[in-house]
Amino acid sequence: MDTVLKPENEGLISVSLVPYSEHVNAGPMIFDQLNINQVHNWSHCVEIPDSEFNNARFDIDRSYDQMQHFQWNYYSIESGNQQNTLYDTVCPRNNYERILPFSQNATYIKSQINQFKPRAGTSIFLGMKWGVGMLQPNFRPIITSLSNSGSVDAAFANRPSALDDPETLKTVILMTDGQNDRSMRIPSWYYNSDSEIVHWSRYNLQYYLNRYVSYYYHNDFYYEKYNASQGDSLLSSICDAAKEARIVIWSIGFEVTDHGANVMRDCASSPSHFFRVEGVEIEDAFEAIARQINQLRLTQ
């Protein structure tokens, strides 16, 4: 959130939603504003180099690779099965899974949240990188462009505010029901032609290997891009960078393990900014955070 504290703009709060699972769907609006090495049109995830997690900002001038489009987790079906086409790809591709940038439309925000569904994989560090990066001033040209096109409310054309603006409060509320997990990719030698890219958009990777490839060669077709330990380290880095940028971080661990709770507590601005909850307690956590944000707005 990027919240103006000026009395004349008391109600002006901008909220961005960054849904994440195994990856983050930037959506076509933001995706098209970045310098992407685009190789397909099926989804809009961006591969972020590990070095960028040491900085709260996105390197807007960098050329990013587009995330591959394939299924990994369901090895008994093909991607062409309509029941699973939209839900199982490593890069989320449903409209409601896209980033919603800088909105004050509470009805629309709630509508998107109400459509969320569980899906495979958890890459908390990627969700946090997007949430933090979108609060940095160098992201302003993208938001301004989206505002000029009518995709973002005109009130936010000059957002995000400067980091040292004393009348703006920048906050991130990070919630997870799991912990960082591993994530696979297809080696470039099996994903470097139009025919291969189309092929993997149609077949679940594990399904194809189990059916058509000798077991002895399975490992040649994928590699581990991230593991849980690496995810924890990248999350810690981006959380530290956010704190240095004076962003207030609340974190919520919903029915998490002790390990997941420790990782989320470490990310929060302080131990009191972390909530470990079960069941309906999650509603109390969000209400408590809302009260604290409102108190900060009124006292600063």
In N-to-C order, the SSE pattern is EEHEEEEHHHEEHHEHEHEH
Strand content: 15-25%
Kindly report the spatial arrangement of strands forming the biggest sheet: 6-2-1-7-10-11
Residues in helix, %: 25-40%
Biggest beta sheet summary: 6 strands, mixed
Distance between the termini: 16 Å
- Specify Rg, calculated over alpha carbons: 20 Å
Overall shape: it is: globular
Mean pLDDT: 89
Number of DSSP strand runs: 11
Structural class: alpha/beta
Count of structural domains: 1
Contiguous uncertain segments of 5+ residues: 4-9, 75-87
Please, how many helices?
Answer: 9
Organism: Sulfitobacter porphyrae
InterPro entries: vWFA_dom_sf
Protein name: VWFA domain-containing protein
Structure report:
The chain is α/β, with parallel strands linked by helices. The protein has one domain (2-299). 32% of the residues lie in helices and 15% in strands. The chain contains 9 helices and 11 strands. It has helices spanning 27-31, 106-114, 124-133, 140-148, 194-202, 205-212, 228-244, 258-267, 281-299; strands spanning 2-4, 13-17, 36-37, 46-47, 64-66, 100-103, 168-176, 183-185, 223-226, 248-254, 274-277. The strands form 3 sheets. A 6-stranded mixed beta sheet has the order 6-2-1-7-10-11, with helices on both faces. Helix 8 (258-267) links the parallel strand 10 and strand 11. The radius of gyration is 20 Å and the shape is globular. The model is unreliable at 4-9 and 75-87 (pLDDT under 50).
